[in-house]
Target: OmpA/MotB domain protein
Amino acid sequence: MLMKKFAALALAASFGLAACQTQDAYTGEQKTSKATYGALGGAVIGALGGALIGGGDSTDRRQRAMIGAGIGALAGGGVGYYMDKQEAELTQRLRASGVSVTRVGNDIILNMPGNVTFATNSSDINAKFYDVLNSVAIVLKEYDKTLIDVTGHTDSTGSDQYNLELSQKRAQSVASYLIGQSVDSRRFYIVGAGESQPIATNDTPQGREQNRRVEIRLSPLTTS
Model:
């Protein structure tokens, strides 16, 4: 019942965003006003339940919550083996999906390109991307000894504040959908980085496309 409530709230926020689109007089693109972002923020945040949103180092707090809930922490050589298995399953399930799977130490990073996940200037998840997120959710539920950081990113087009708001909303949308698929909300940390962490140049269309993304970082649950 609780997860249905999460999903319903997220869906309500999604419909609200869609209903409050305006057309840019110069480009013809559909955009969501800043006022709309503020009004709908509470609905999306409510859908995220126990997830931590923005600000500060949340790792210790999440570790305590998960271990306190009876989910055992990984230790020693078991950490690498556990993450190896998770990486292999994600790679298999996400092949040809447009989502890259990268290993950095014991962390796994899923890079979800904005042009695949969202429409331009929107935080509404493309319906065709639901199956991809469903596959991610299956793995996250199977490998529940990981912490989940969801970070939204944009290119440098537009104001800093607008980009920050859009990146936060996109990260929240992805996290909310996964929580709606019964992934434990206490595992999540959600933040928008705006345009502050580019992975390519913003001077070309190709570079800006790479920078518009949502990243999911999976870190092993340990006691350290």
